[in-house]
Amino acid sequence: MATTLQIRNVPAELHAAIAEHARAQGLTISQYLLRRIAQIEGKPEVGHALDAHWEHSKHRKRAAPGAAAAMVAEDRER
Known about the structure:
By secondary structure, this protein is mainly α. It has one domain. The protein is about 65% helix and about 0% strand. The protein contains 4 helices and no strands. The protein has helices at about 10-25, 30-40, 45-55, 65-75. Helix 1 (about 10-25) crosses helix 2 (about 30-40). This is Toxin-antitoxin system HicB family antitoxin. It comes from Natronosporangium hydrolyticum.
């Protein structure tokens, strides 16, 4: 069952901008905001994404220190 969500103290400029975006897409403000909220909820939070990245990077092979510089120097000698 759907529930109601109310947001108070929305600045007039923000309300006008939201209304314009909704109107441009042929939606009511409620329809527009519901879509935007669904988009936000579908994306991982930055902290979770960074945690996953760092966890994954722990298991990657790393080049030896100076290896990149040695490869560049070797390539320049050719």
